[in-house]
Design brief:
It contains six helices and six strands; from the N terminus they run αβαβαβββαβαα. By secondary structure, the protein is an alpha/beta fold. The chain has a six-stranded mixed β-sheet, with helices on both faces.
């Protein structure tokens, strides 16, 4: 192995440790391969926060099930290429890979090619986001900035700000309005 490759791997591991980010891969939650993919630009300028508006999950098994259910609905019923969101965050405190970084999502009309879509699993008109979910969302965003997927000057919106919807639910929307990059 060349010294450059070893250095690059060491640098990546250091970033991983600094941010402490662990992502449950699509393979780990039992997701299907996408029908197609579209690469996203680097340094996206926006993050759009969503809720699934479906069942809440507080265990890894339940969250994996919800991710599979959402992917099946998006692909089979809506005819999309994959689950719409780039990432999901469960009340179990885990981040779940959707489309992932570097790929265009299908989560907010006219915003998909310029925004990372992060979805909190559950209905946040009814539930309140946990401290672990909030922490993981912020860690994921910081990681995206550190890796060049998001601009350091990104703007954070709730889905309702860019589309005609209640999403991300009132409780989650009230939470994200406290985050430093949220914009009215």
């Amino acid at each position: 192995m060349s010294k450059l490759i070893i250095f690059a791997l060491a640098a990546l591991l250091c970033i991983h440790e600094i941010y402490g980010i662990t992502i449950i891969s699509k393979a780990q939650w039992g997701g299907k391969a996408p029908k197609s993919r579209t690469n996203a630009n680097k340094n996206l300028g926006y993050v759009v926060i969503h809720h699934s508006a479906g069942a809440y999950c507080s265990t890894m098994d339940a969250c994996k099930t919800q991710m599979r259910n959402m992917q099946a609905y998006h692909m089979n019923d809506l005819g999309w290429a994959d689950i719409g969101y780039n990432f999901g965050i469960g009340a179990d405190g885990n981040i779940y890979e959707g489309r992932g970084f570097g790929l265009v999502g299908a989560h907010a009309t006219n915003w998909n090619s310029k925004a990372l879509g992060i979805m909190f699993i559950g209905n946040y008109n009814n539930n309140k986001p946990t401290a672990a979910q909030v922490s993981k969302a912020k860690e994921l965003i910081a990681y995206g900035v550190s890796q060049g997927y998001l601009s350091s000057n990104y703007v954070l919106y709730g889905h309702r700000q860019v589309g005609s919807t209640e999403c991300p639910g009132t409780n989650l929307y009230n939470e994200i309005k406290k985050w430093p990059k949220w914009k009215a």
